[in-house]
Design a protein that fits this description.
Elements lengths: L12 H19 L10 H5 L7 H12 L7 E4 H7 L5 H10 L3 E6 L3 E6 L4 H16 L9
Antiparallel strand pairs: 1-3, 2-3
Helix pairs in contact: 3-5
Length: 145
């Protein structure tokens, strides 16, 4: 039987340790990402039976549709009907605009152009600090009665 020459695939011990430590560092970084994300199936956003308030459904839908604020989109009556907010579409959009989350441009009565407002970096840093604080808190359990 012919034995293959494996000497060209061998790596020095120092190189192997460097690779392993690099992989461990990468695993640490991915275990504690700098930014937190929430994965949510889009069917949960458009499901009218879910417990999310109408403004929240609209906001999540707009984040999805605008690719997290990268572009402006049309928010039509069909979108509002799909989310179950057709009867209060403009009221809910105006409330989101009043909170500073979106900018509206109306085009007639049935169609609205929506631009998602990107947050200021100082606001984002403050919010991330608050999130990190709440995530780092130990679970406080109430003792049963």
């Amino acid at each position: 039987m012919l034995q293959p020459d494996l000497s060209e695939f061998e790596i020095p011990a120092e190189e192997a340790e460097r690779r392993i430590s690099g992989q461990q560092e990468q695993a640490k970084r991915s275990a504690h990402p700098e930014k937190w994300y929430l994965k949510l199936p889009i069917r949960q956003v458009i499901n009218q039976r879910n417990p999310l308030p109408p403004q929240t459904r609209i906001w999540l839908w707009l984040l999805f549709k605008t690719k997290s604020g990268q572009r402006s989109v049309l928010f039509t009556t069909e979108d509002a009907e799909m989310l179950g907010v057709a009867h209060n579409k403009m009221r809910d959009l105006r409330r989101l605009e009043a909170k500073g989350l979106i900018k509206l441009t109306t085009r007639g009565t049935a169609t609205v152009i929506v631009t998602v407002v990107i947050e200021d970096e100082s606001e984002v840093a403050q919010t991330e600090t608050q999130i990190d604080y709440w995530l780092a808190r130990p679970n406080r359990r109430v003792k049963p009665g």
